[in-house]
Amino acid sequence: MTKPEIEFPQGPAPTELVATDITVGEGAEAVAGGIVDVHYVGVEFETGEEFDSSWNRGQSANFPLDRLIPGWQEGIPGMKVGGRRQLVVPPLLAYGPEGAGHRLSGKTLVFVIDLLGVG
């Protein structure tokens, strides 16, 4: 696998989570509350500016889903290992409304996530 190029949705930022499978995996399925091993890239919807990428660190990230932003908690379950999914996450499912105290508060975020494993 290689680091994905993010293709931007057209039009205004969505107000609800939009999950789009780029590649459907054939392995074990991620479940709500489970642990996932992922590679991901995150960019801001408005600017296209990358704010985080496990690819740049050279290693995947292993997380319990229930510790992640709501958009990931809702958008990753159902993915299968080997899959790649794009999530467009509105502020209320990401880091909250403008002024919520995180540098990404108030921003719609786009992630491309590769599911490498589940636990």
Automatic annotation (TrEMBL):
> What Enzyme Commission number(s) apply to this enzyme?
5.2.1.8
Q: What class of enzyme is it?
A: isomerase
Q: Which domain of life is it from?
A: Bacteria
Domain PPIase FKBP-type positions: 33-119
List the Pfam families.
FKBP_C
Q: Which InterPro entries match?
A: PPIase_dom_sf (IPR046357), PPIase_FKBP_dom (IPR001179)
Q: Molecular function (GO) terms listed? A: peptidyl-prolyl cis-trans isomerase activity
The chemistry this enzyme catalyses reads: [protein]-peptidylproline (omega=180) = [protein]-peptidylproline (omega=0)
**Xref: SUPFAM superfamilies:** FKBP-like
Supply the alphabetized keyword list: Isomerase, Rotamase
Q: Which family does it belong to?
A: Belongs to the FKBP-type PPIase family.
Q: What is this protein called?
A: Peptidyl-prolyl cis-trans isomerase
Organism name = Williamsia limnetica
